[in-house]
Amino acid sequence: xxxxxxxxxxxxxxxxxxxxxxxxxxxxxxxxxxxxxxxxxxxxxxxxxxxxxxxxxxxxxxxxxxxxxxxxxxxxxxxxxxxxxxxxxxxxxxxxxxxxxxxxxxxxxxxxxxxxxxxxxxxxxxxxxxxxxxxxxxxxxxxxxxxxxxxxxxxxxxxxxxxxxxxxxxxxxxxxxxxxxxxxxxxxxxxxxxxxxxxxxxxxxxxxxxxxxxxxx
Amino acid sequence: xxxxxxxxxxxxxxxxxxxxxxxxxxxxxxxxxxxxxxxxxxxxxxxxxxxxxxxxxxxxxxxxxxxxxxxxxxxxxxxxxxxxxxxxxxxxxxxxxxxxxxxxxxxxxxxxxxxxxxxxxxxxxxxxxxxxxxxxxxxxxxxxxxxxxxxxxxxxxxxxxxxxxxxxxxxxxxxxxxxxxxxxxxxxxxxxxxxxxxxxxxxxxxxxxxxxxxxxx
Lengths: 217, 217
Fold this sequence. Notes:
Chain A is an alpha+beta fold. Chain A has two domains: 28-118, Nitrile hydratase, beta subunit (Cyclin A, domain 1), CATH 1.10.472.20; 123-216, SH3 type barrels (Roll). Helices cover 32% and strands 17% of the residues of chain A. In chain A, strands 1, 2, 3, 4, 5 and 6 form a six-stranded antiparallel beta sheet that branches. Chain A starts with 27 loop residues before the first helix and ends with a strand. By secondary structure, chain B is mainly α. In chain B, the strands form two sheets. In chain B, strands 1-4 form a two-stranded parallel ribbon. In chain B, helix 5 (61-73) crosses helix 6 (75-83) and helix 6 packs across helix 7. The longest helix of chain B is centred in the first third of the chain and has 15 residues, at 25-39. Chain B is globular and about 55 Å long. The chains are: A alpha+beta, B mainly alpha. The interface between A and B is large, with 89 and 81 residues. Strand 5 (204-210) of chain A pairs parallel with strand 3 of chain B.
């Protein structure tokens, strides 16, 4: 979806303001927001693509006026509400009003440590040969999916070259829309910035693109 | 509204009440969310503590600095990083969530790499820890791909006009670690000492490794 999260190339947000000696958390609630977001991810009620999609489909004004941890919390609440895991009354009161639904896992501390160290690899066994090779000339398709996608607007319709072939990975455009993993070949595509942002741009931009995003040229 | 809960939880003591009155809305909201999710049995509070402890004490940019210092010191390790960065980084004990598929990108006098996630906040957690606020902010996400030299200037970094900038837009499961250039005058240094030159920003590509003269001053 063409939403406010797709920020590449926007010019309206002003300069970057790096904070000197930035603390890891700016308030206690940010600690809890991290722990709850990461922790609930391991309950197995949604995948990482669905959680990204939940953040990116927040109302635009809310998305742009929230800090990143606030975005995480709003998406967490949305994911749980959608699944009947909590009610709005419970979120307001902080007290259980309806029985819990069954979740797939509730890791204890030792299991959580193991899960954090293991992560959740997205690479899968290839079911078909890669369509493109390193050095192939490609073009990002000019597509505007209504649902979740990882193809940024600023490369759509633009020419690029395959920089590296990264194996077969879970396809967010399916997994983030509730359609299952549908693994696809994943490429890193090199774009000349002048093709993206005009003649004065002299750098290159490399973007990870799944095979369905690309066509030969 | 929040006060109604105090009786239920037996917290109607003077000092607790005083604390509550000083909490801002986010603290109240997140505390309510955490107690609700614990009460419903969706998360184990000890597992939540483990998550916070992990990212506060064990996982952070010092991990990445060790990787870079070894890469500078050990040609065979550097070769393994180029071949399979996830496995090579795993040799140092760093692995897991948000770093399942690592790639390194090497800076040289001709090439400067920098990393952004225009769509969200993808970042290599096992080697750099949690991303700083600016990395997740609209100004960086929007302009890193379109005008990286101007963005680098906002970090106080000025590169020769002959250096080609390569911006990696990390929008999904591949994670990039920049190997900054080893500063001159560090011949014979131990890995521990070299690691002190490696800043977080130098591994994102918005900074350079520190000047060794400054370290001893």
